[in-house]
Task: inverse folding
């Protein structure tokens, strides 16, 4: 395929340039360039304020054409990792100040894996969203939405519904009618899917309905906002408590959660 196509084969060659990136070998070239540059920023190889090597040097280092590098840099800019100035180079940004919730998914997919403190932060945010969504759903959900929440809670007892937990909370958030809750949950779900080995251990109690979700669904259906919030908090605190039991003051994760 031509050099400007989306999929190419690159001939491996000796990389004598100083930027230190490995040549890309095949497929989705800009995706691979994006991933390596993203990881270089997330791991601190390039700190906020640093300049990335020029397109020409990056293209030589990755052994790809400049179009693939340019496309990857544009994606990094859209995601809040860098600022690209035409004719003025590419500056690394502080992602804590410039990125959105999609950063959670990037962190989960980076070469460093899931940081224990990021896991904690994500689980705490999940709890906050779920508690408030349950509270709001109890006050303003439509009759149809309340019925869907009740039906979703009943699905925990069905052997053929492996995603009952995800489906339940999606219904609660939908019932709240709050778009920002839903968008935040979408980002959390992407991060969960990217680190499934770890999240399987942390969310086991939630998915097994250890603290039944049916009373929460009933509280939402009955319009009892405070009871719904308390029940949601108890259910969603399980994963936070599991995280605490598997960490050493947030510094390390027990091997069972590493997927090793």
Result:
């Amino acid at each position: 395929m031509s050099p400007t196509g989306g999929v190419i084969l690159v001939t491996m060659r000796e990389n004598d340039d100083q930027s230190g990136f490995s040549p890309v070998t095949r497929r989705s070239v800009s995706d691979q360039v994006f991933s390596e540059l993203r990881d270089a920023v997330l791991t601190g190889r390039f700190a906020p304020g640093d300049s990335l090597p020029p397109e020409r040097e990056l293209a030589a280092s990755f052994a790809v054409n400049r179009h693939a590098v340019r496309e990857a840099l544009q994606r990094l800019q859209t995601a809040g990792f860098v600022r690209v100035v035409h004719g003025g180079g590419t500056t690394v940004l502080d992602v804590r100040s410039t990125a959105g919730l999609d950063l959670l998914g990037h962190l989960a997919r980076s070469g460093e894996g899931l940081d224990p403190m990021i896991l904690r932060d994500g689980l705490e945010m999940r709890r906050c969203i779920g508690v408030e969504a349950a509270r709001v759903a109890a006050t303003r959900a439509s009759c149809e939405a309340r019925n869907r929440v009740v039906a979703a809670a009943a699905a925990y007892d069905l052997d053929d519904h492996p995603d009952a937990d995800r489906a339940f909370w999606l219904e609660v958030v939908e019932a709240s009618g709050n778009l920002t809750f839903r968008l935040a949950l979408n980002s959390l779900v992407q991060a969960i899917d990217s680190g499934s080995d770890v999240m399987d251990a942390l969310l086991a109690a939630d998915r097994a309905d250890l603290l039944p979700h049916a009373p929460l669904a009933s509280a939402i259906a009955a319009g009892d906002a405070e009871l719904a919030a308390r029940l949601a908090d108890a259910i969603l605190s399980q994963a936070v408590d599991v995280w605490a039991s598997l960490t050493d003051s947030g510094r390390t994760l027990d091997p069972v959660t590493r997927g090793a």
Observations:
- Strands lie at 82-85, 89-92.
- The radius of gyration is 22 Å.
- The chain has 13 helices and two strands.
- The first helix runs from residue 29 to 42.
